[in-house]
Amino acid sequence: MGLRWTDVREIAIALDEAHPDMDVANLRFTDLHKWVMALDGFEDDPNRSSEKILEAIQMAWLDERD
Description:
mainly alpha, Arc Repressor Mutant, subunit A
């Protein structure tokens, strides 16, 4: 089964691998949404995303960097 919006930690890891030089603290949620949708194995409905989910992904991505 592929990635879903609820797979916050796994998405963060995949984003860090795909965009290692990104300034995660200052990214736009519209870009984040687009990048999640473009991940290999992401299979969830684009409309199931929310600001709360995107913020959780951003925070997990920041944690991956630490």
